């Protein structure tokens, strides 16, 4: 396992200082598993302005399809052969088909009846129960031997900067035989690593990061939290690897609680930087894939320019899939460390 970085240096002449020479560093990092590159550059203090939330949220509940007065009237139902009762309901959490599906078996799960929940008020309990509702769906599609019941995935887009078109907290829940790009590349590369080294990449990564401690935040149960070496987010990514678990349905109730616990710690940490939005994806192997380990990636999202609504994804990322992170992952680890001090 190699942690490769190429350091670069740009020289410019500064007109404000009598054309004095200024040197600006940057770095290109290579993800040790996939070879994907990530740039560490555009260095700035990781501190953003939050919007006026009252103004942002005001009135959006009136047309929100997930609010309690509308959700059971508006949202669709699954056909009987998949889910005889149409939707899964656990108190105020409701799972129903995604009206804009990107695969055969796509669902959306509301995380309760509350329309707007500030990031720091999302509790461990709420995340656990919402994950559990998604897991009920995964078990149901497994039980009917659905051909798409291979990879069970939860994606979470929290708030509009992360791509959510609704304020109301919800999860994207889907089961698919078609692994998404980056997950497929990881699965293939992990298989190659296992064959070449007779060792599991993810377990080796945890052992390396834990010993090195430059990016390792800590363990909650068998979930290991670390700042990603080659992050995709502008404020870094945090990776949680569940040691010993190959796939989503191998996660225990305790694992789900530990993952939710870690996520709330990350939300508290990034909130201090003025971040109020994130993406979170599950990455899983197929059942019995010895090379895979379940992991999730938490990636904070923000604007390059809040007033203009300039997204943090530009041409470099969108068309080259080359990413920019504005601080060293090792510094981001230091900033998040206070939230993991109980471990
Ligand atoms: Zn709502």
Automatic annotation (TrEMBL):
InterPro entries: HIT-like_sf. It comes from the Bacteria. This is Galactose-1-phosphate uridylyltransferase. It comes from Desulfosarcina widdelii.
């Amino acid at each position: 396992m190699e942690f490769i970085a190429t350091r670069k240096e740009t020289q410019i002449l500064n007109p404000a200082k009598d054309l004095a020479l200024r040197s600006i560093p940057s770095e290109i990092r290579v993800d040790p598993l996939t070879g994907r590159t990530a740039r560490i550059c555009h260095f700035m203090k990781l501190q953003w302005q939050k919007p006026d939330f009252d103004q942002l949220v005001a009135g959006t509940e009136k047309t929100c399809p997930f609010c309690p007065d509308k959700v059971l009237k508006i949202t669709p139902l699954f056909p009987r052969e998949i889910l005889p009762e149409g939707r899964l309901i656990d108190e105020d959490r409701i799972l129903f088909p995604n009206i804009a599906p990107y695969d055969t078996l796509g669902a959306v799960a509301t995380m309760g009846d509350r329309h707007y929940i500030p990031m720091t008020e999302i509790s461990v309990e709420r995340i656990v129960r919402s994950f559990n509702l998604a897991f009920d769906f995964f078990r149901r599609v497994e039980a009917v031997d659905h051909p798409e019941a291979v990879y069970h995935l939860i994606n979470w887009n929290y708030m509009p900067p992360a791509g959510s078109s609704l304020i109301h907290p919800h999860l994207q829940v889907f089961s698919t035989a078609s692994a998404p790009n980056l997950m497929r590349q990881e699965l293939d590369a992990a298989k190659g690593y296992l064959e070449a080294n007779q060792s599991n990449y993810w377990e080796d990564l945890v052992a390396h990061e834990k010993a090195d401690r430059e990016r390792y935040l800590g363990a909650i149960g068998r979930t290991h939290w670390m700042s990603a070496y080659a992050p995709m987010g502008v404020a870094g990514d945090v990776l949680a690897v569940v040691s010993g678990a190959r796939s989503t349905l191998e996660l225990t109730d305790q694992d789900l609680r530990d993952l939710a616990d870690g996520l709330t710690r990350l939300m508290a940490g990034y909130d201090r930087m003025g971040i109020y939005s994130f993406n979170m994806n599950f990455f899983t192997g197929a059942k019995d894939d010895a090379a895979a380990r379940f992991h999730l990636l938490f990636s904070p999202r923000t604007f390059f320019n809040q007033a203009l609504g300039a997204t943090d994804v530009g041409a470099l990322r969108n068309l080259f899939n080359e990413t920019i992170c504005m601080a060293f992952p090792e510094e981001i680890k230091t900033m998040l460390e206070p939230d993991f001090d109980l471990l």
